[in-house]
Amino acid sequence: MLFEHSEKRAISKYRMDAAIHGIKLDDESTEESTPKAPKQKRGVSGDPDSYNHLSDEERKELTRKMMGKHKMWAEVDKPLGGKEPIDKR
């Protein structure tokens, strides 16, 4: 939903820019030409009911592995999430 809204705003801005520069555009609907965002899976772990068959030790090990992957992805050990600070001089 947020993606679709941002695409509509971008198209509206492009149309305004084109009109300012004297370009005439067709009055085609932006609904058909706007790409749809793929449905995203919520959460990394999936459905909690799918882990009912695991023992507590197996759950803890799986949690440790998932958190390790998340920390590598997020680079939480580095300041600013691994990004370089902006030098404002």
What is the approximate shape? elongated
Number of strands: 0
> Average pLDDT, to the nearest integer?
76
Task: Classify the secondary structure makeup into a structural class.
Answer: mainly alpha
Distinct helical segment count: 3
How many structural domains? 2
Strand content: under 5%
- Residues in helices, as a percent range: 40-55%
Q: Determine the N-to-C terminus distance.
A: 39 Å
Radius of gyration computed on alpha carbons = 23 Å
Give the low-confidence spans. Answer: none
Taking the sheet with the most strands, its summary is:
none
Q: Give me the oligomer status.
A: single chain
Order of helices and strands: HHH
Key terms:
single chain, 89 residues, mainly alpha, 2 domains, elongated
Structure description:
The chain is 47% helix and 0% strand. It contains 3 helices and no strands. It has 2 domains: 1-40, no CATH class; 47-83, no CATH class. The model has no long low-confidence stretch (mean pLDDT 76). The protein is an all-alpha fold.
How would you summarize the topology of this molecule?
Blueprint (H helix, E strand, L loop, with lengths): L1 H19 L9 H4 L22 H19 L15
Short description:
The chain is an all-alpha fold and 89 residues long. The chain has three helices and no strands.
